[in-house]
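quick one, two chains, predict together pls
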Amino acid sequence: MRAAIVTFPGSNCDYDCFKAVTEVLGEDAYFVWHRETAVGDCDLVILPGGFSYGDYLRAGAIARFSPIMQDVQRFAAEGGHVLGVCNGFQVLCEAGMLPGALVRNRSLKFQGERVYIRVENTDTAFTVHYEPEQLLHLHIAHGEGNYVADAGVIERLEAERRVIFRYVDESGQVTDEGNANGSMNNIAGIINEQGNVLGLMPHPERSVEALLGSKDGLPIFTSLAERLATAGSSA
Amino acid sequence: MSSYTAEVRITPRAGLLDPEGKAVQNALHSLEFDGVEDVRVGRLIRLRLNADDDAGAQQTADDMCRRLLANPVTEDYEIVLVKGS
C-alpha cells in the first residue's frame, strides 16, 4: 500500500499518520502539500487532523478549496480510498464527499481525551480487521466534532449501515453519557455510499503501538493495507 | 460597474441546537436578564464588491454564501446589500 498524506497549513497529525503507515505498518507513504494539484501514485489518501487555515470561517471550510482537493475528489470518484481523520473528516463534509457537518461540541470545550468507540460495521475496506461491535479506546482532540445532518440523511446512513463508529459508554452501550460531544445518534465516523471514503473524529493514528497506550487504531491501517495490497492501484 | 457593500448575517439553522447561544443565554439569566427567551450566536461578514447592478450584486453574494460563507447543512444566511461604500 502506498499512502499520500495531504498537508494543509495547520495540519498537525500528518507525521503521526506517516509514522503509523511507514514505521508501524512497514508500508509506503509520502506527503503532498495542499497547493499541489495531483495526489500522485497512491492507493490511499489520508486527510490528517489539525487546524487547517486556523479553522477560520468553519473547520475545514477553506481547506476544501485547496488546489489538491480537486484531485482528491477525482481520486475518490475513480474508486480510490480516502481516510479523513478529525479535521480531515471536517474537510470531507465541507467538500460534500460525506454528508452532514461537524459543529461545536455540546460541552462548548475543546476535548482532548480518550473515549469509548464501538465498531458498527466490519464489512468495509477500513474495518475488516475489527471484530463486530468491538469496543475501542481512542483519543479525540477537537472542539467541533458534534455530528449533525438532516433527519433524512441520518435515517439513510443508519439504514445503509454507513455509521461505522459510534461513541459509547465503557460497557459499550449507546447512551447519552457515552456520547462524547453530542453527535446525533452518537455518530463518530461514517462512510460514503460507494464505501471508499471514510471520515471519523477519533484519532486511530495515535493508538497504533502499545507504547502509546493503545493499539485500537491499528486495525484501520492493517485493514486498508490488506485490501489495497490485493487490489493493487485502486485509482 | 457599481460598488456595493454586502452584509452577510449567518446564524445557526432554526431548530438546530446552538450550544454557544445556549451558554450565552444561561449567562444572561445568571445576570438576571430573566426576560431573555432565546439566544442564537452567529457571524457577520461585511464585504465590498463590484457588480453591474443590484440584481447582479445580490446574485454574486448569494453564490458566495452557498459556496463558501455559509454551510447549508447547519446555517441560515441573510444578505443586506447597500449601494456605495
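The interface with chain A takes residues 12, 16-17, 19-20, 23, 68-69, 71, 73-74 of chain B (CB under 8 Å).
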